[in-house]
Amino acid sequence: MSKKAIYVVDDDPKIGELFATVLRRDDYNAEAFTSPVTMLEKLDGGAVPDLVLTDLMMPEMTGIELLEALRERDLTLPIIMMTAHSSVQTAVEAMRLGAFHYLQKPVNLEEMRALLAKALDLYSDKVELRQIKRERKKAHDVDKIVGTSAEIEKVRETIETLSDIPNTIVLIRGETGTGKNLVAKTIHYNSDWNAGRFMEINCAALPDNLLESELFGYEKGAFTDARAGKLGLLEIADGGTLFLDEIDSMSMPLQAKLLSFLESRTFRRVGGTDDIRVATRIVCATNANLEESVAEKTFRKDLFFRINIVSLKLPALRTMGKDILLIAHEVIKYFNKELKRDVETLTEAAEQKLLDHEWPGNVRELRNVLERAMIFTRGSTLDASDLALLKTEGFEDAGADGYFRFRSGGSLEDLEHEYIRHILGTTDTSYAEVARILGISKKTLWEKRRKYNLDEELESA
Ligand SMILES: Nc1ncnc2c1ncn2[C@@H]1O[C@H](COP(=O)(O)OP(=O)(O)OP(=O)(O)O)[C@@H](O)[C@H]1O
Ligand SMILES: [Mg+2]
User: Fold this and answer.
1) Percent of the chain having pLDDT more than 70?
2) Mean pLDDT (the chain, rounded)
3) For residue 246, how far is its CA from the centre of ligand 2 (angstroms)?
4) Between the CA of residue 46 and those of 73, 85, 101, 124, what are the distances in Å?
5) Which of 1, 56, 55 is closest to 29 using CA atoms?
6) 174 Cβ closer than 6 Å to some ligand 1 atom
7) How many other β-carbons are positioned within 10 Å of the β-carbon of residue 133?
8) Which of 13, 91, 105, 399 is most buried by its number of CB atoms within 10 A?
């Protein structure tokens, strides 16, 4: 392992050199600077130390200003402040702003060694995490949301606007396959406030009591079989984003609990009495008409107002005109890489076919159509005949030929298993919609998915 690099900054050259010498003896790669500005120049030249040990009061720039300068450069490294007794209060303030810790002058060397070791240890993971995060951020650049229409522009703009606001609540609306998940992740990864994780849950996928404990967690003993407590997603995503998909499917009592959290930013675990405070960004999505749900009294009006403050409407693909082709070309680029193909162009007839289609499944459907076409092609051009479009009326047609076949002789249960799998596998839509097609409740659908192990079956299909 290479030596860890430590920069020591102190306007008193004697002190800086003294510490650097001690640290070199401890087998660190230490360097002393009398000027914070010189150190920053070295960073801008590409140097990346593992830790900075800095004096708090310096004529050129205070330790706190230096801290801010490092933050601006998006560097994740521990900063330790050295301070005289009289300015301990300022050092505490520095910690609030992100310094790792402070050492009181005159510095006790043993204390310093222990603190450095701890900081370097804790940060070694963080630096790696930071790396991963940077890559994710790149993968979720706003430009990945393709389209030139005013609506899509607005979506990208809003995401940029939200980037420096912590604790936002956002509502994303749009038909199935219009990019709600994509936008939710893009909001998270483009935010300055994403030290925490991105977690998502589909509110239609779980029965009420399970959804509640997934969201809020529970204390040991909250249920008869709760032998240990469990953290809820709100806590797991603290400092990050919780994405509540199909928010319209949430039950009224749970809606009340969510609203109370949004108002107070605190909640209680199921079976708990402590108020827990988190800074979790809440992004909700729905393809339902929430105004209607409010009118029908299946969605709380107050919750609707609370989540509808920043609302993003994603356009249906059929309304996007020439953007359909723009997205198609992006998708082709993607599958060229993924499938090792060299498709360069669409014929005019193919373009027209894409422009004329209704796209009930929106961008997801377009991706599926192109993926299928590209699996079977070897050439550099896709023609209209390469594009197998699904009929658009209703989901009954969503199977390969619109029929569901079942070998006679099986049990009724087998039939049910097969049929539910068929609908889930051929329908690119919400569980709420699948439940509607099957004529059962979402809860029953959930029970059947679990009984027949359908999620796993479909995952591996
Ligand atoms: N404007 C866009 N530009 C590029 N890709 C897009 C765009 N909109 C959607 N996609 C892609 O289309 C696919 C479907 O998007 P996504 O899963 O986000 O849709 P959704 O609105 O969440 O659908 P559902 O309501 O069914 O959950 C994804 O692969 C996504 O990356
Ligand atoms: Mg989605």
Assistant:
1) 95
2) 89
3) 8
4) 11, 35, 25, 19
5) 1
6) yes
7) 15
8) 91
Atom of ligand 1 nearest to the CA of 184: 18
> Strand, helix or coil at 129?
helix
Whether the ω angle into residue 106 lies within 30 degrees of 0, i.e. cis, is yes
**Is there an atom of ligand 1 within 6 Å of 361 CB?**
no
CA of 366 to the centre of ligand 1 (A): 10
Residues 211 and 259 occupy one common structural domain: yes
CA-closest candidate to residue 326, choices 136, 175, 153 = 153
Residue 196 and residue 62 share a domain: no
Which tokens go with 176? Answer: 């199935």
Reply yes or no on whether the pLDDT at 409 is more than 90: no
Segment 274-298, tens digit of pLDDT: 899 888 999 999 999 999 999 999 9
Go through 399-424 and write b for each residue having 16 or more CB atoms within 10 A of its CB, e for each that does not.
beeeeeeeeeeeeeeeeebbebbbbb
Ligand 1 pocket, residue 54 CB under 6 Å: no
pTM given for the model:
0.67
* pLDDT tens-digit map of 209-257: 999 999 999 988 877 776 777 889 999 898 889 999 999 999 999 999 9
CATH number at residue 356: 1.10.8.60
Beta-bridge mates of residue 51: 6
Looking at the fold, whether 377 and 414 belong to one and the same domain comes out as no
Judge if the beta carbon of residue 63 lies within 6 A of ligand 1. no
Ligand 2 center to 178 CA (angstroms): 8
Whether the CB-CB separation of 226 and 218 falls below 8 Å is answered with: yes
Q: Which of 386, 412, 441 is the last residue of a domain?
A: 386
What range does the domain containing 284 cover? 140-313
Predicted confidence at residue 390, as pLDDT, reads 66
Q: Find the CATH number of the domain harbouring 82.
A: 3.40.50.2300
Where among 280, 313, 346 does a domain terminate? Answer: 313
pLDDT in tens, 198-212: 999 999 989 989 999
Evaluate: CB of 432 within 6 angstroms of ligand 1.
no
